[in-house]
Amino acid sequence: MPVYNKLVRDRIPEIIEKTGANCLIRYMEDNEYKKELKRKLHEELEEYKEAKNDADALEELADMLEIIHALAISHGVSFEELDEIRLEKAEKRGGFLDKIFLIEVKNE
């Protein structure tokens, strides 16, 4: 029987049991949960980097977005509040849509 020892989506145990299999789970404390969310974000980032096409890349981005939603809540804010922080930063410093690649800054 496979051992996973990792954070999974909320409905995974239900999905596993519908196949006739049994699974062993436990619920994490907040500190461990944040740590596992960060680990999961790294895992999904690696899967995004290895995506072979746009459809696969979008699936991985959606997974990362789900994790970011959970991370925001674990830090005490809603996703909407997190997006407000993002918008404030974009207003002050811009976004990443102009595709600017900084090569060098010369001090005079």
TrEMBL record:
The question of whether Coiled coil is a record keyword is answered with yes
* Stretches assigned to coiled coil: 31-68
| CDD domains xrefs | NTP-PPase_COG4997 (cd11532)
Q: Which GO terms describe its molecular function?
A: hydrolase activity
* Record key words, sorted: Coiled coil, Hydrolase
Q: From which domain of life does this come?
A: Bacteria
Q: What is this protein called?
A: Phosphoribosyl-ATP pyrophosphohydrolase
Tell me the lineage of the source organism.
Bacteria, Bacillati, Bacillota, Bacilli, Bacillales
